[in-house]
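In the design runs reported in the main text, the only information available to the sequence generator was the tokenized backbone. The following block is the verbatim input for one such run; it is reproduced so that readers can re-run the procedure and compare outputs position by position.
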């Protein structure tokens, strides 16, 4: 188990570097009960940083499982109003949101997939307003992780000390193993921001992807911005939304995706794994989707709403990144997406367009941003991936070769 000192370091990173909590601000933490010791540390650090109040939404994997196996069908069509109001009110009060993920990737294995889809749909509809706050950076938010026993056993099958091994891997990926993680993050954040502004200055019209199982072209909206590392919320306070993060990302033009793309890592989606899948696109729309594992879950995902058949994010991650070099498959998107180039099905971040957070839903759509109740990243990168950027005059240049930066 991690030492108290390690937990404190991790809590400091989440509150000060990730959320960058401001004096007088509230903090809402969502975490599993396995991680109470970490949540207590986070709470202490938050009050030290001047939090006016810290609230926690606890979850318990076992309770979630019991509900999905035993609750009546109609339970999944209803998202409680009081819970929606909690999210909406906290967001309106500019509360910061910290999510500490620990989910067992096989948690809902064997559950009727239509129950999961109904549950995702009712939550997706109820939290539309809150999602707008978060995805336009109207509030500061951060997603980080801590092990649960079942997740650790999935990552390190057969290991007696799986939980310790997963803590070590998480500490490495988040630079907690270094003597001064906060300074390391300042440097790393600067590098990611520089890469992002360089890509933005290129104003690529299109990206051309090729790899085994992948041949696709992605058009980028005229006013797209690449984002990497942290950035300011709409009140000008910097925060880093994912710990770890290794990606630079932007949005695709909703109707400008053509060709097919194959996954290179399993996708943990709502307690089920989707693996070895290929998506075919015509003018942005997913017209065919085939998975060797998890076909039903994949079908449910892309049928959630109209926007779930289109992409909302294009992210570049070099094959040689600390997480990727660790060789560990985390079965958790927060880590696996930061070891691989990826795309996301669903809603685009409005922050990826010039002045995006100020645009109306119609204006965002006009510029090519996809809207959906979902946003699910999936991994497509490998050491065999080449990506070209097409400049305004039609010439092409190498952006990535053999999975690594060529620029
Ligand atoms: Zn991403
Ligand atoms: Zn994403």
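Verbatim output:
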């Amino acid at each position: 188990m991690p030492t108290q000192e390690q937990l404190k370091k991790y809590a400091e990173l989440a509150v000060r570097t990730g959320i960058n909590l401001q004096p007088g601000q509230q903090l809402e933490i969502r975490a599993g009960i396995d991680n109470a010791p970490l949540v207590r540390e986070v709470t202490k650090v938050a009050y030290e940083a001047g939090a006016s109040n810290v609230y926690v939404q606890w979850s318990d994997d076992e309770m979630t499982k019991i509900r999905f196996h035993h609750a009546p069908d109609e339970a999944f069509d209803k998202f409680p109003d009081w819970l929606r109001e909690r999210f909406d009110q906290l967001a309106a009060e500019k509360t910061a949101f910290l999510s500490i993920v620990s989910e067992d990737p096989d948690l809902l294995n064997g559950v009727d997939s239509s129950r999961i889809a109904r549950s995702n749909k009712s939550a997706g509809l109820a939290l539309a307003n809150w999602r707008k706050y978060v995805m336009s950076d109207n509030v500061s938010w951060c997603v980080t992780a801590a092990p649960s026993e079942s997740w650790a056993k999935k990552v390190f099958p057969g290991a007696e000390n799986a939980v310790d091994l997963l803590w070590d891997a998480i500490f490495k990926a988040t630079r907690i193993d270094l003597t001064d993680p906060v300074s390391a993050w300042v440097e790393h954040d600067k590098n990611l921001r520089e890469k992002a502004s360089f890509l933005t200055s290129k104003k690529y019209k299109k990206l051309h992807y090729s790899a085994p199982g992948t041949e696709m072209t992605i058009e980028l909206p005229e006013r797209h911005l690449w984002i990497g590392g942290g950035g300011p919320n709409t009140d000008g306070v910097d925060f880093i939304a994912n710990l770890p993060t290794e990606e630079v990302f932007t949005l695709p033009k909703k109707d400008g995706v053509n060709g097919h793309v194959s996954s290179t890592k399993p996708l943990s989606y709502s307690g089920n794994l989707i693996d070895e899948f290929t998506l075919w696109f015509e003018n942005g729309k997913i017209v065919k989707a085939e998975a060797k594992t998890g076909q039903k879950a994949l079908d449910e995902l892309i049928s959630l709403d109209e926007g779930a058949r289109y992409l909302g994010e294009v992210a570049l991650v070099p094959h040689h990144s600390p997480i990727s070099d660790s060789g560990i498959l985390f079965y958790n998107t927060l880590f696996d997406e930061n070891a691989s180039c990826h795309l996301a099905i669903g809603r685009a971040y409005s922050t990826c367009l010039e002045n995006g957070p100020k645009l109306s839903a119609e204006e965002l759509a006009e510029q090519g941003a996809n809207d959906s109740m979902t946003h699910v990243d999936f991994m497509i990168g490998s050491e065999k991936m080449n990506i070209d950027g097409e400049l305004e005059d039609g010439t092409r240049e190498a952006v990535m070769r053999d999975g690594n930066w060529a620029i």
